[in-house]
Write a structure and sequence with these properties.
Three copies of one chain form a homotrimer.
Chain A (H helix, E strand, L loop, with lengths): L2 E7 L7 H14 L10 E7 L1 E4 L6 E11 L4 H18 L7 E11 L5 E5 L1
Parallel strand pairs in A: 1-2, 4-5
Antiparallel strand pairs in A: 1-4
Helix pairs in contact in A: 1-2
Chain lengths: 120, 120, 120
C-alpha cells in the first residue's frame, strides 16, 4: 500500500516512464499520507491495443489508478488525485495532432482483508 | 470516463481486438449513457500466462471490466453489462476444443476523487 | 468468478508463473468457497516498468488481486487472502539483494451487474 498503476497508449512515444513513476512517487511521499516511501509500489503499462470513442481522430490517454487502504477522507483522496494529475500535466509534451486525455482514479482497498509481507 | 478493459487469453487467436473494441465502444455510445463518444477509453490486453481452474482441458476467457463514475442505477449498469456481453457473444467464432468463458464486470469509480483533463 | 490477477516485477526472474498460478488455484479450490474449479480464472503479468518508493535499493513485488462476486463475509475474504499470501511466501526463493513485497487484495465485484456465459 499504496499501489499505483499507470497506463499509457503506445502513440504517446515521448513518455519517459522511469521519470514519470519517480515523480508520481515523490508526489505521494510529499503528501505525508504514507508512513514509508518503501510502501509505494508503482508500475507503468504501455497499451498497444486501444480505441478512444468511435471517431477517426488520433487519440491517446494516460490513466492512473491509485489504490489505497480504506479509511482516508474524501478530501485527502481528492488532494492525492489532483497532485498526481498535476504531475501528468507537467510531464508532457505530447505528440502533435493527438488528442490526449489524462485521468486519475483513487480507489479503496479493503483494509480488513488485505495481506502483506516484506522480505529482505 | 468510462474506462473499458478487455483481457483475452492468448489461445483465442482469432479475436480481432480492433474490431471488438470498436463494437464495444459503439454499444456504449448507443446506450445513451455517455455525453461524448470521445470520453470512452477502451483497451485490449492479451493474457499470455493464465490458468483456468485446476483441470487439464484447454480453456480460455475474455473478461471485460467497465469502470463508470459512480451514480448510475443498478438497472442501467445491468443493461450496459448485458449489452457488452452480447457483443462478446457475437464476435466469436472461438477455436475448436477450447472451453471459453465470457464475462463483463461493471464497477464504480468514485466520482468525488476522480480527476481528468483533456489536451488538444 | 473468481478472477485472480498476479503481477510480478521483472527482476523476480525465478518466479515460475505456471506453477504459481496452479498453486493459487488449488488454494482457492481447497477453500470450499467456489462451486466449480472451472470458474477460477487466473492470470500472471510481468511488470517491466516499475518503481518502488523513491530509494535506490533494488526492490520488487508480487501483487495478487482476487475479485469475488459480492456477498462473502469479511472473515471468509480474510481467510482467502491469507491462504493466497501463504502460497506466495512458499514459492520463493527470491533473488539475493532484492527487497521483495508480497501482497494480496480481495475485492468485491457487484453481483447484480456481473454477466457471464460459458461456451463449449
Amino acid at each position: 500500500m499504496p499501489h499505483l498503476h499507470l497506463e499509457y497508449t503506445a502513440n504517446l512515444t515521448q513518455l519517459d516512464t522511469d521519470k514519470t513513476l519517480l515523480r508520481l512517487n515523490h508526489a505521494l511521499v510529499a503528501s505525508g499520507q504514507f508512513g514509508a516511501e518503501f510502501d509505494i509500489k508503482s508500475r507503468a503499462h504501455k497499451v498497444e491495443s486501444f480505441r478512444v470513442g468511435t471517431g477517426l481522430n488520433e487519440r491517446g490517454f494516460v490513466a492512473v489508478r491509485l489504490a489505497l487502504l480504506s479509511g482516508r477522507s474524501a478530501q485527502v483522496k481528492k488532494q492525492l488525485s489532483e497532485s498526481l494529475l498535476a504531475v501528468l500535466q507537467d510531464i508532457g509534451d505530447w505528440p502533435e495532432g493527438v488528442q490526449v486525455q489524462l485521468s486519475v482514479e483513487v480507489r479503496d482497498m479493503d483494509r480488513d482483508t488485505y495481506s502483506k509481507v516484506a522480505i529482505g
